[in-house]
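#onboarding

Welcome to the new folks! Below is a worked example of what a typical request in this channel looks like: someone posts a single protein sequence, and someone else replies with the predicted structure as tokens. Don't worry about understanding the tokens yet, we'll cover that in week two.

Example request:
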Amino acid sequence: MKNLSWRLIAVLVVIIMAAVFILPTTSMYLKGASEPDMWPHKKINLGLDLQGGMHLVLEVQTEKAVENAMSLKISDIRQALRKRTMKNRGVTSVDQSAKLNVKLLSPDDLAAFKGIIADDFPDLEVIATSQGINTVVVTLAMKAAEAERVKKFAADQALETIRNRIDAFGVSEPDIRKQGKNRILIQLPGITDTKNAKDLIGKTAILQFRLVDEDGDVRAALDSHAPAGSELLHLIRKDPATGAESSTPMLIKKRVLLTGDSLTDARVLFDNMANEPYVSIEFDRKGARIFSKITGDNVNKRLAIVLDDTVYSAPVIRTKISGGQAQITGGFVMEEARVLAIALRAGALPAPVKILEERTVGPTLGADAIRKGIWSMIIGGMAVVFFMVIYYKGSGLIADVALILNVILIAAGLAAFQATLTLPGIAGIILTIGMAVDANVLIFERIREEINLGQSPIAAVAAGFEKATLTILDANVTTLIAAMVLFQFGSGPVKGFAVTLGIGILSSLFTALVVSRLLFDSILRKANVKTLSI
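Example response:
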């Protein structure tokens, strides 16, 4: 009786916990709400195939990452040339390529220059030289092995940056993984605001602080080209009331005074005076020191805040700004400001990304999939229930009770662990139903053997459970290991199958070995049964 009492307590505790976790989901779907309104506020998340959402395939422009890496070498090469007093006419990027041209004023310096590259820039190589009258142009490129490393790093960093942005965006159970060398697959279940999601994912988020060219002629730049050292960008303003955008051309100096690499935080605040949100940013210690010097040296000049080649604001510096804080304004609505803050917090993408494939899965398809999946569970479950009752009679009813509890425990487990239910996950539940019955079949056949040997019902049940337990544990533990491997190395749908299978195995072990035994013992002991219906 002591063992029976402990089994009863364990079963009651598990049933109560299951009810606590499954009721919020049940209440949510009955009310047609989007989120549970009762404690513990956890629900069963549905995958992209069940509730709809976004499917994207992105390509990371890794060649651009190599170009960016080469452009960072320009100032270093210039410094090396100055250090050795080697006369030159500058170091420039070759348009639309990851190459640099260095124009030396003396052909005699070519050998020495190649030595500088070999000693100070081992990741670069000279790929061409072009000799003119008293000049020589040397073309540099990144070595193949180093270029591949930069490309791989860019793809990996893009994956992590996009994952951080999506996590901050608040998507439940997104599926984000690499495909090949430079592609990223993204599945966002339940996303309806596809425009903001795409804007957030694709935003390069390269933040720069640059001075406005107050002396340049904007009209002349529009008609022909911008003066040397400046470029023509546009200040974008949006009317919060109408949503209409206005674009104002501005001449912005090319020299970057500070970048977003020094950012430590970006959050949305509200300006009550202007009646609009803005993004407040904070710099690290080094960035704060640089920003303080920039504002101190350029009082009464306009400082442009440039993000992805778009000017968000260009305020006049009234005084030196210390403390490492600044504001980005731009006539934002709240959602735009939130997306911008997320992108800045998560960091800049190392290279632009291109959307290769975009699909939106509608909720109608998801509802149809859920309906068919539930019907398959009901039909399969009912077939198993009828079989157990017909073949094992009264004992089959005990197995059916344990089976129903098993399905409830799986649903509660999915809610408790905030797992995602997918179509393969439903297949995992159906498989678990069969495995749960299989455990009962092993136990019942052992009980039948004991009864045929002349054992009493109580002794036969005890012996049947004792002899079948090791076999059941062995079979289920090996399947659980397989589920863990699938979860570790599988993709999104395979992981969904592995999660439900893993939870189902644990719940079927509990219902077969604990719940069924409790029901048998309660009936046999209290009803003083002389013959067992099996």
